[in-house]
Structure prediction request, 260 residues.
Amino acid sequence: MTTVTTTPPAPVREAVPGPSLARLIGVELRKLGDTRAGRWLLASIGLIAAAIVALQLRFVDDAAQTFTNFFTASLAPVALLLPVLGILSITAEWSQRTALTTFALVPRRERVVVAKLAAVLLAALASVLVSLTVAAAGTLLAGVTGGAGSWDFDWTVAGHAAVFQAINVLIGAGFGLLLLNTPLAIVTSLLLPTVWGILSAMISALHGPARWLDTSITMEPLLGPDVTAGQWGRLGVSLLVWVAAPLAAGLVRTMRREVH
Prediction:
């Protein structure tokens, strides 16, 4: 007599959905302050903005102590730190050796990169809110201490400031994504624009291209209320070189790099 045995079918495993993009962005926002360097960098943004306003209250003429002047003066110093924030957000995965865990949990690396870029953009927008807050505090103090204390403000400036700070943080993120090394990315992001600016000022043949490629020139109109169509066009060309190209090349490198 022949006995027929049947193998029970393997249990069907339900597919576990990956984390949503919103959750990834939340994780990346938390990572910005997880390390000591990240916490100090975020704190420095607020401290520097407050210090600039305090210096204006102490040394600037009373008539110039206005909300607009307080706000615009705090943008440039903060803009120096935002590229470093963008770099740290990208390169921390490799310097802290967490890339293996991150990309094992989220195999689609482009989603992680998008989440990191969204997180640093939100941080850049938050820095504008910080500048607005310290400018308001400075204006209140100016009114109490005898300064002008004028609240007249063109809110177009705030919109331009948001674009200005977003570009700065994306420049850092682009260099971080391209080089994947924190010290090298920081030095390169500071050195290359500086060298280009010096060369374009010294060599007359570079004066024309600099109007289109030097971000210190193309981004300057964003600190005011009026930006012409030509200025937007020159800004767009410079962003192709300093933001779009590094981000695209860096994304390709990140997708192909071996994780150890």
User: Anything to note?
Assistant: The first helix runs from residue 21 to 32. DSSP finds ten helices and no strands in the chain.
